[in-house]
Structures are given as C-alpha cells and as structure tokens.
Amino acid sequence: MNTIMRKSVLGIAGIAFAGGIFAGPATATAAPAVDAKPVAVTAVQADKTDTSKLIPHGVQGKQSRIDLTDEQVGNVKAIIAATKKADMDERAAVVSIATALQESKLENLGHLGERNDHDSQGLFQQRPSSGWGTVEQITDPEYSTMAFLKGLKQVDGWKDMPLTKAAQTVQVSAYPDHYAQWEQQAADLVAKHWNS
C-alpha cells in the first residue's frame, strides 16, 4: 500500500475512533431509561372493536372514502345508537352505515325536487310511498335506522352474506353493487364510535 493511501486510511480510522470516544459516552449517558407500561396498552386494546366481526367476508372491490362533517358524524352516532337499541351487533351497524354512505353520504336529505329519486328522503333514501313511514319519520335518523334494521332482520342469513347483498335485499337499489365501496369506511366508523 502506498504511503498516501495508508495515511488516508489511518486518518479516516482515527477520526472515526475519536468521534466514537467523544460521541459514545455522551450518547450513552443522555438516553434515560423508559418506563413502559404494558397495562395501559392492554386497556386501550380491550376497548377496541374486533375488526374481524366488522368485515367478516373482506371488502369487495375498490373502496371509497369521504371526509365527514360534524353533522355526518352525528348521524353515524345516531345509527350506532339505534343499532344498539334494536339489540343488533356491530356488523349490523357497518351494513347500516355503508348503506347510508351510499344513499345519502350520511346526510339527512329532505326532498330534493327534480333531482330526487321519486320521493326518497333521509339517511337511507327511504320512500313514504313505499311504506317506509311518513316524511317526518324517515327524516328522523333513529326511526329510519330502525326501519332499515327491521328490514335487515328479515333477510335470512344476512350475517353470512356480503354487505352489498344484505344492503341490496333491504334497499332494492338500481345500483346494487355500490354499497360494497363503503364497507371499510363504515367499519372504521363503527370501530371508532361503537364504545364512545
């Protein structure tokens, strides 16, 4: 090895060694011990909803997602409260919220005039002329959710079918596959708000 190269290698090694001496002890003494508390982590995890119950069949197709206003979050909470009142589980809430996301984007819609699909209104776009209730009833989030859930309960094996098929059996939509795109966001909302 030539003299210039040897001096360069030794110089680099010296700098690395000196840096290690000066930086090593300072770094070692500066890092305080962390007191981890696994009990707190366990308590947080216990409050979380089991996601395998929320999406037992996996999501189907491309998923959509929207940002929610305070009013829309309030409607999510109303759907969850009505689901609990109907003595149904988190999966029923996922189906309900995904349906309302498709039908109204979780907005409690009144009559939309010429843009309206017949006389459909409320979170689930239910129609007074189809026997869902009065306008006042179907624009009440609790009532409209209870009406949807009553229909869902009548679907044999709804828990064992994909979300879009369960929702379509109740709703009888012209676009039966569109409910599937909201399953992940609906499950996320149920996981976040079921115990709140």
Describe the structure.
The protein has 196 residues and is mainly alpha-helical. 56% of the residues lie in helices and 0% in strands. It has 9 helices and no strands. The longest helix is centred in the first third of the chain and has 28 residues. It is globular, with a radius of gyration of 28 Å.
Q: Percent helix among the residues? A: 55-70%
* Strand content bin: under 5%
How far the N terminus sits from the C terminus, by CA atoms, comes to: 72 Å
Alpha-carbon Rg, integer: 28 Å
Shape descriptor: globular
Walk me through the topology.
Layout: H1 3-30, H2 38-47, H3 51-54, H4 70-85, H5 90-104, H6 135-138, H7 141-153, H8 163-171, H9 183-193
Helix pairs in contact: 4-5, 4-7, 5-8, 5-9
Characterize this entry briefly.
The protein has 196 residues and is an all-alpha fold. 56% of the residues lie in helices and 0% in strands. Residues 1-48 have low confidence and may be disordered.
List key phrases describing it.
196 residues, mainly alpha, 56% helix, 0% strand
